Amino acid sequence: VAALNATHDPARRSWVESANDQRGDFPVQNLPLGVFRRRSEPASSARAGVAIGDQVLDLAACLDAGLLAGTPAEMPARLAVTGGTLNALMAAGNRASSALRAGISELMREGGEAAARARAEAARILVPMSEAELGLPAAINAFTDFLTSIHHTERGGRMTRPDSPVPQNFRHLPIAYNSRASTVVPSGHAIRRPNGQRRRPEGEVVFGPCDHLDFELELGLFIGPGNAMGEPIALRAAPEHIFGYCLVNDWSARDIQRWESHPLGPFLAKSAATSISPWIVTAEAMAPFRTAAFARPAGDPAPLPYLTDPTDQDEGGMDLGLDAFILTAHMRERGEAPARLTATNFRHMYWTFAQMLTHHASNGCALRPGDLIASGTTSGPTDEARACLSELNLDLSTRSRRPVALPNGESRLWLEDGDEVIFRARAERRGFVPIGFGECRGRVDPAPAWPV
Ligand code: MN
Q: How far apart are CA 399 and CA 159, in angstroms?
C-alpha cells in the first residue's frame, strides 16, 4: 500500500493557479494520468498527460524540454509516452509510477529549482483542458465487472428473491462476470440504446430497442504489472498490481438482462457500452483516503484465509464519495443544472479491490497491464446511496416500481433517449487536500433501426 510522502503534503501549492482552488478536482496532490490530444490535432497524436487545475501537462513536451532529464522520473515518463497508451507505464509497477509522480510534483509545485524551469516552459508544456480531447487511457484487453455492494445485492434480491435476498455465495467470494473490453469508451462518447431480445410480462418474446435502460455507478481499477498464467497473486501483494482508479458507468439493459441471464449470467445486457472517466487517479494519490475494510456484521462468515490479510483489513477500503446526476434533454434545452440521483461512498463495499484481484487470479487466471476491473454498483445503506435506477425506482413496500421524481417535475422509470448520465467522485479527509476524479458522462442516443 502506497505510503504518504511529500507529494501528499497539504502545504504544497502549484504555480498553476487554478490548481490551488480546493473546490477543484486536480490540485498538485492529485496528478491523475490520462491520454489526450489537442482538438486541432489528429487522433494519432494522442499522448500521455497529467491533469493539473484547468490544464493538461504534456509529458512528451516535458521530456522534449529536458525538464525530467537525469531524474528518476525520466524513465517512467518515457514509458508513459510510449505507444499512445499508459500500458507500458502500468506494466512497470508502482515504483515507476511513484517516481513519475514525485518528478511531476516537483515540476508543478510552487517553489524549487525544477518548478522554476518548468514555469519558464509553461506555454510549451501546458494545454488548456478546454482545448483537450481525452481518450481511453489504456489499451483495455479485458474487463471484469464485480458485484461487491451487499446493499445493491440485497435491494435487488428483495424484489426477485424475497426469502433469501443475498445469494449464499455473496459473503464468501467477490462475485463477478467477464464483460466486454471492446465497447469501453471514454467520457463524452454517446451511447446508442441497445436492441435486444426480452420476454414481455404476458409471455411474448420480442426483439427491439431496450425499454429498461439503466446506469450503474461503479469504481474501476486499472491493473499494473499483473501475473503470469498459473501464478496467483497473494492478498498482501495485491496492492502492487493496482495502478489506479477511474469512474465506470456499466450501462445495463435490465429487460434484456432479466431474460438472458439464466443460467449463465449477463451477456448482451451489459456489453453494448461501458463508459469510463478518462483520468486515472493513481493508488498513491488515494493513499490519504484509505480506510478500514467493510465491517462485517456479527454472524457473517469470515473470509477464507486466501482472502484475509491484516493490512487489507486495516486499510484496504477507500473513503471516496461517489455521485450520479441526470441531465435530461428538457433540462439541457433550458440550461438547467443536472439533477443528483445518487450520493454514495466506496467505503460501503463488502469486498476490497485487493480481495477482488486476489480472487480473480486465485485459479491462475492472468491479469495483464491495462485490464479493467470494476467494483459493481456502489450502493450504500441509505436511500440516497442507491446507485442505479433499478434500486431508485424500487418500492419495496409493494414490491413494484414507480418513476423517480426529478426536481424540474419530470420523472424517470428508466433512461430515455437524450438523457445524459454524469458521475463525479471526490475524496476528502481532514488534514489533506481533497482530490476529485473529473467526470464520467454519456448521453443516450436512439437505438439503431432494425433490420440494419
Ligand atoms: Mn455492473
A: 6
CB-facing half-sphere around the CA of 69: CA atoms within 13 A? 7
Instruction: Output the CA 250–ligand 1 centroid distance in Å.
Output: 5
251 CA to centre of ligand 1 in angstroms: 8
Q: What is the mean pLDDT of residues 135-162?
A: 95
**Run of H or E including 245:** strand 242-249
**Residue in this structure with the C-alpha cell 479493467, named with its chain if needed:** 372
Q: What is the 3-state secondary structure (H, E, C) of 326-359?
A: EECHHHHHCCCCCEEEEEEEHHHCCCCHHHHHHH
Residues 6+ apart with CB under 8 A from 400: none
pLDDT band at residue 451 under the 50/70/90 scheme? confident
Alpha helices (H) in 16-149, listed in sequence order:
59-64, 74-80, 87-91, 94-108, 113-120, 122-125
User: Cα dihedral angle (424, 429, 433, 434), rounded to 10 degrees?
Assistant: 10
Distance 297 CA to ligand 1 centre (A): 24
User: 299: which residues sit within 8 A by CB, 6+ positions away?
Assistant: none
User: What residues are paired with 234 via a beta bridge?
Assistant: none
What is the rounded CA–CA span in Å between residue 141 and residue 223?
11
Residue 68 has pLDDT above 70, yes or no: yes
Which pLDDT does position 221 carry in this prediction?
98
Q: What is the pLDDT of residue 37?
A: 97
| Catalytic residue numbers, as ranges | 152
**Phi, psi at residue 65, to the nearest 5°?**
-80, 0
Q: pTM of whole model > 0.85? A: yes
DSSP, res 391: H
pLDDT score recorded for residue 2: 72
**Integer Cα distance of 219 and 57 in angstroms:** 25
